[in-house]
């Protein structure tokens, strides 16, 4: 699975004033120019996300390191965060009764 598919959200891509940039590939083994670009973008570790304005300067920097990063619009970022929050939400406990079906109904009638 590619890095982009791992972070792709289920919303249409639209123009956004802010870009959310996530470093998904490691820095070791990259060119010095690419390391300096990532440093300028404040991306020091993998799976870190920063928000930058959508300007030609930033887009040029991202063009240099496009194989190392995933770029999301504001809507894509929010949709991904909501999806992750829903996945991590606390679910109600699963109640398992080990009694036979007839005994379980009898015990509930006796309690009433």
Automatic annotation (TrEMBL):
Classification via Gene3D superfamilies: Ribosomal protein L30, ferredoxin-like fold domain
One Gene Ontology biological process: translation
Gene Ontology molecular function, alphabetical: structural constituent of ribosome
Bias kind Low complexity: ranges: 102-112
SUPFAM superfamilies: Ribosomal protein L30p/L7e
Keyword Ribonucleoprotein in annotation: yes
Family listed: Belongs to the universal ribosomal protein uL30 family.
The protein, known as: Large ribosomal subunit protein uL30m
Source organism (scientific name): Ambrosia artemisiifolia (Common ragweed)
